[in-house]
Automatic annotation (TrEMBL):
Name of the protein in question: glutaryl-CoA dehydrogenase (ETF)
GO biological process: fatty acid beta-oxidation using acyl-CoA dehydrogenase; fatty-acyl-CoA biosynthetic process
Record domain Acyl-CoA oxidase/dehydrogenase middle: where: 169-267
Acyl-CoA dehydrogenase/oxidase C-terminal domain residues: 280-427
Reaction equation(s) it catalyzes: glutaryl-CoA + oxidized [electron-transfer flavoprotein] + 2 H(+) = (2E)-butenoyl-CoA + reduced [electron-transfer flavoprotein] + CO2
Lineage: Eukaryota, Fungi, Dikarya, Ascomycota, Pezizomycotina
Subcellular location: Mitochondrion matrix
Organism: Pseudallescheria apiosperma
GO molecular function, one term: glutaryl-CoA dehydrogenase activity
Record's GO cellular component terms: mitochondrial inner membrane; mitochondrial matrix
Length: 434
């Protein structure tokens, strides 16, 4: 399929290095109306969250929404049926400046955290799998290199990753250690024959993008210290038999993204490819913070798509005396609950994004919005699915796909109960993990 990305580029690609951070937030650049008769309730933006955005953020969101609705939406159904991910999607996103969008320099757009969340929201309105592939590239791998890499690593990887020409994967989860990555078994030790190299051995599982990744950010325990370190593995430099990345097939969620394992057997990695100054779980968790933020706004996009589709269906479907389903109170309550959660979730995520750019967001705040927005998106999507009756079972009504995807968003990057434990520890001062 040929995608005329240039159409979008010509019209409105995200300006590289646009100075969003210096803009005053929360809509003060827009005059506030005081006339009550000008107040309008918009069911698509019930709390007028758009008023909190800068003009540049609105422009970024519009660019992303246009691309997603015109070029991603038409192919998602078949991709989901075939369990197929087209890596060209990352190049298309790269052409529009959507990858690593918060990064300053290295060919990245340098937009605000909120703007990057609006990108994830636009993509996830189509499919959480497309958003996952993008988030891994942008937040987990590019973000990790930008925050923790050497200057040489940044120059080597970031510009090509920003174009989507190099694809990244982030390997933290292992077959025996998911919620508890601190117990990981993957080990890095000095290579027995290659001076200046480490040898990595172990397995990672449920890794987004791993079968198609060119560069794999893998977390392993350094044998000498027992501390977790980050390593950038270049697939092209791995001798045969030292790195395998088989796909995990027959998923019942996130089928439009590609997921796999990473098997390393004495995989040689230059010492220069290790992140220099970060050890322990602080490394992976700082990448996860940004990615979790993207999920928090992203899932509100999936939920808003469910609301719009359920509303339309309820207006058109007639039962009992020719009444549309929308006339019935139980149907209205489902829509009211979902719209309320989507609106609250959006406003809360914008607030955390603003704090993040000021250096004032804590991991607990991000846990709170990630957990709440994922839980509410999954719950409401499941309830809205009922409005479609038997038709919900057909994939052409789109809602079942969101429900299956949203289960995954609630599970990965910290399952919701794990985020509850993070919050519970902060509230009580007592940790309940073990
Ligand atoms: C499609 C997909 C893509 C993914 N992509 C990536 C990726 O790119 N990179 C990556 O590293 N990982 C990825 N993951 C892995 C994901 O992050 C893990 O699945 C997640 O962290 C949960 O780990 P687990 O599956 O091992 O579950 P477990 O850790 O076994 O947890 C199972 C259940 O037990 C609960 N539980 C665990 N410990 C406790 C406790 N102390 N108290 C109470 N409840 C507890 C959990 O909340 C959960 O409900 C992906 C997963 C999926 C499904």
């Amino acid at each position: 399929m040929t995608i005329p990305v240039s159409r979008f580029l010509a019209r409105r690609a995200i300006p590289r290095a646009c100075a969003l951070r210096s803009r005053v937030a929360f809509g003060v650049s827009r005059p506030m109306s005081t006339a009550a008769d000008q107040a309008v309730f918009n069911w698509e933006d019930p709390l007028a969250a758009k008023a909190f955005l800068t003009e540049e953020e609105i422009a970024v969101a519009e660019t992303a929404e246009k691309y997603c609705q015109e070029l991603l939406l038409p192919r998602v159904l078949q991709a989901y049926r075939d369990e197929n991910y087209d890596p060209k999607i990352l190049e298309e996103m790269g052409d529009l400046g959507l990858l690593g969008a918060t990064i300053q320099g290295y060919g990245c757009a340098g937009v605000s955290t909120v703007a990057s969340g609006l990108i994830t929201k636009a993509v996830e309105r189509v499919d959480s799998g497309y958003r996952s592939g993008m988030s891994v590239q942008s937040s987990l791998v590019m973000g990790g290199i930008y925050e923790m890499g050497t200057e040489e690593q940044k120059e080597k990887y970031l510009p090509e990753m920003a174009k989507g020409k190099l694809i990244g994967a982030f390997g933290l989860t292992e077959p025996n250690h998911g919620s508890d990555p601190g117990s990981m078994e993957t080990v890095a030790k000095p290579h027995p024959t290659k001076t200046g190299y480490y040898s990595l051995s172990g397995s990672k599982t449920w890794i987004t993008n791993s079968p198609i990744a060119d560069v794999l950010l893998v977390w392993a325990k350094l044998q000498e210290t027992g501390k977790i370190r980050g390593f950038l593995i270049d697939r092209k430099d791995c001798p045969p038999g030292t790195l395998e990345t088989p796909a995990i097939k027959n998923k019942n969620g996130l089928r439009a993204s590609i997921t796999g394992m990473i098997h390393m057997d004495g995989c040689p990695v230059p010492a220069a490819n290790m992140f220099p100054n970060i050890e322990g779980l602080r490394g992976p968790f700082s990448c996860l913070n940004s990615a979790r933020y993207g999920i928090a706004l992203g899932v509100t996009g999936a939920l808003e798509d469910c609301i719009a589709r359920a509303r339309q269906y309820a207006l058109e479907r007639k039962q009992f005396k020719g009444n549309p389903l929308a006339k019935y109170q139980l149907i209205q309550k489902k829509l009211a609950d979902a719209a309320t959660d989507a609106a609250y979730g959006t406003v809360a995520a914008i607030q955390v994004g603003r704090l993040k750019d000021q250096g004032l967001a804590t991991p607990e705040m991000i846990s709170m919005v990630k957990r709440q927005n994922c839980d509410r998106a999954l719950h409401n999507a499941r309830v809205l699915q009922e409005i479609f009756g038997g038709n919900a079972v057909s994939d052409e009504y789109m809602i079942g796909r969101h429900v299956a995807n949203l289960y995954v968003t609630q599970t990965y990057e910290g399952q919701s109960d794990i985020h509850a434990l993070i919050l519970g520890r902060a509230i009580t001062g007592v940790q309940a993990f073990v």
